[in-house]
Amino acid sequence: MDLKDIIKPENRVYGKTPLLTDNVMHYCPGCSHGTVHKLIAEVIEEMGIQEKTIGVSPVGCSVFAYNYLDIDWQQAAHGRAPALATATKRLHPEKYVFTYQGDGDLASIGTAEVMHACNRGENIVIIFINNAIYGMTGGQMAPTTLLGMKTATTPYGRDPKLHGNPLKITELLAQLDGTCFVTRQSVHNPANVRKAKKAIRKAFENSMMDKGTSFVEIVGTCNSGWKLSPVKSNEWMVENMFPKYPLGDIKDI
Question: Which fold has domain 27-252?
Fold first, then answer.
């Protein structure tokens, strides 16, 4: 059989979306960011909104997202992505506007920005990658770091008396009147990848219905920060992260 017969469109099982560039991703092997990038790109392609989508990325591992997704991007100061997305969406209500933020960015320096954007009910999508650590800057404790979890700044484990308790920011945002869809997903296996993609698409669709803010948390891994292999990181996440940050829809209007 000729190779041309094998690669006919009807025989193709999967094809990389053209919204993903050919640049080699800089993320550590096993990192969740690459999978989430792929899902966002596939959703945008399937909805046919490449020319209508604007992404906003702040400081952190996500800072180079513009290098991998072929859409319009804006760069925000640390924690300020929701504010910039608010302005962009209000100036261009016909655009699909989303932020892509990590827990060190969104749940720490950016807490005020995300709380008020969600409370106002801005018609944007916020995608939140929660790996419970500052991945890019050296593995320090983040607001979402688990109790007892060792990081560069909690070498003996997070102590609630000294460092406070983990912040369940997603549950807090679900209480605000301005949010219409709040969900927590993961991408550690095929079934959960499909659920995460469905949630991302629903969030994008909501942003054009004047329903308010859609917030999608992805519980992810940080193999380098956790000092674990990709396989062990997924196992650790399931055993330790999911009990504190359970998957599923929290709010759906």
Answer: Rossmann fold (3.40.50)
